[in-house]
Amino acid sequence: MGIVSFKLAFKNLFRYPIRSLLTMVGVAVAILSFGILSTVVNSWYAGAEGASSARLIVRSSVSLMFPLPLPYRDRIKQVEGVQNISWARWFGGIYKEPKNFFPQFAIDPRSYLDMYPEYVVSNEERQLFIKDKRSVLIGRKIADEHNLKLGDSMTLKGQIFPGTWDFVIAGIYEGKTKGTDTAQLFFHWDYLNEEIRKRGISRDKEAVGVFIVEVDDIDKVGSIAKSIDDVFANSPKETRSETEKAFQLGFVAMTEAIVVAIRLVSYVVIIIIMLVMANTMIMTARERVWEYATLRSMGFGKLFLCGLIAIESWLLALFGGIAGIVLTFPAAGMFRTFTGTLFPVFEISNTTIILQVLLSLLTGAFAAIFPAWKANAVNIVGALRAS
User: Fold this and answer.
1) What is the pTM of this model?
2) Which residues neighbour 181 within 8 Å (Cβ) at sequence distance 6 or greater?
């Protein structure tokens, strides 16, 4: 009976090809939209997902806008459980045009790269970067986006630190995994500090934005963070220490309303297509009342009719859903190209694909409920007489 149901459902699917095709297109667009919107949300959390549990970020307790003195480094090193320490400072320059946004950090090259093994760079390029204070290390995404290569010059127009800043590309780092952010630029903190003095920028000399601390025991990360903050308690510049993941999630929280809105829109699109497809299946059931009555008179039970309608609905949803899933990949590629470095990590996850499949099946099941009930409630004698 299952094979008979499947054959009949498959034939019925293409009885009205234009209607079926348009319904499939609607499902495909909905599943495609869900896939892209879901990937956007995942990209928002990419930084937090890729953060290490063994690293702490130590910043000003007031705001990231307030830097910390470099000498804090030595006192943090003395805290029990601290294994390594590095530091970074946000630069905020413009490359060519304001739209070419990507994060730029002044760092201590040796300690920073040791602490971030996910940034893969050859030993030769690493040494070139370390030796030349006016050099930069850029991510693969920046290099590809702006057609940059080793030895090219880069000029940034400072916003926080006014003036023109000229650099030479010493290295291009790759990501250890697909989820690694390769849309960042790093240069020497020493160079920034020297230029601040030389150019007479009288703000926060010998200061850093954050300290990055690597701990020797992940299970004690909370107590180590508290110990660091206790060292600077009641000082003019108190600190706030938190895990790298919590630090990244703090940025996401600033735009939480946008993320929630995107999630809601992605599911609203699915709900709308559920209703549209349900309407299509209801129209189909109304047109086939005589057929359902005939099948019932021939001895086919209610379960057979339910299966027949459900299979047709599922096939309709699955064909559209598969098309939507397939189209998600080139659409994501176009989105990635269009947005440039706005989303450093924009990869379609396996979870998103699984959700797309499940939502396609759910759409098919939902659309079959009322038509199946209608078919089983039909009056056999009345339907046959009306035909």
Assistant:
1) 0.77
2) 46, 47, 50, 139, 175, 344, 345
